[in-house]
Design goal:
Strand order of the largest sheet: 3-5-4
Largest sheet: 3 strands, antiparallel
Number of helices: 4
Distance between the termini: 22 Å
Number of strands: 5
Strand content: 15-25%
Shape: globular
Length: 78
């Protein structure tokens, strides 16, 4: 699944809170709340927050299956 920026350009790698909010069709404050609660994986780079596209895909798969994210990460590891 490819993520697209508002201008239509494909995004690879790290996403901003705004990118994730637009993809999930939620307000950026909702994404920040998920980050604060530790419910969605994220990276802090300096003062900026970024979300890994692959971690977001795993998080979404875990949510669909009702499984903890760590279980899916373990299953995806070689």
């Amino acid at each position: 699944m490819a993520f697209e920026a508002p201008d239509g350009a494909e995004i690879e790698g790290l996403l901003t809170v705004r990118d994730v909010a637009e993809f999930l069709h939620v307000h950026p404050a909702t994404v920040r709340r998920l980050i604060t609660r530790g419910e969605i994986p994220f990276l802090r780079i300096g003062r900026s927050v970024r979300l890994s596209r692959s971690d977001l895909e795993l998080w979404m798969a875990a949510a669909r299956r009702g499984r903890p994210l760590d279980d899916l990460r373990a299953a995806a590891s070689p």
